[in-house]
Amino acid sequence: xxxxxxxxxxxxxxxxxxxxxxxxxxxxxxxxxxxxxxxxxxxxxxxxxxxxxxxxxxxxxxxxxxxxxxxxxxxxxxxxxxxxxxxxxxxxxxxxxxxxxxxxxxxxxxxxxxxxxxxxxxxxxxxxxxxxxxxxxxxxxxxxxxxxxxxxxxxxxxxxxxxxxxxxxxxxxxxxxxxxxxxxxxxxxxxxxxxxxxxxxxxxxxxxxxxxxxxxxxxxxxxxxxxxxxxxx
Length: 233
Fold this sequence. Notes:
By secondary structure, the protein is α+β, with helices and mostly antiparallel strands. The protein is 44% helix and 12% strand. It is built from nine helices and five strands; from the N terminus they run E-E-E-H-H-H-E-E-H-H-H-H-H-H. Helix 3 runs antiparallel to helix 4.
């Protein structure tokens, strides 16, 4: 004989209510995930939704994100590009460090990347890092190529490619630190012109370098250390 458990009163106990994945705040709906943070405390993460029926899916996505990429990925969805750029600059845009004459970190020259970063901030500065999409990359490239330099000349493709290359490096840095799930550059091809990239990456072969150094004698001997230094990158 099955016995129904009762509460302190005369009525049978009620079944536990189903899990609720959403909450309404000031007329707006949010998916709600409670999780245990790295410091051991329980925290709640909210994400806006348009329909209560999507709440569970959004919560499941947040839970997978937390399990796969950690707390940083879950809490960085509001990170603004300008704030992220400050982190990148403090970490990666630093003067070169050498050990026994060999560069082990940092950059030999900071003037060019810092100038490129200022341009990127003008376009992406107020955007959320996670909101940057391949279409934004294409719009940036078009915007820059259709513009003119301070001297009134049309901007070169190589210049825009250099700026985009810095942006790609920055977004890879964001992925490495779990502030970004995927680099939008990986979703589209041709943003950085391959022909221009190949032209910029052109280096002398060993035979070409040997023949060039062979003629750096006499009045041209002063060019020899310059060529050696330029070849060592």
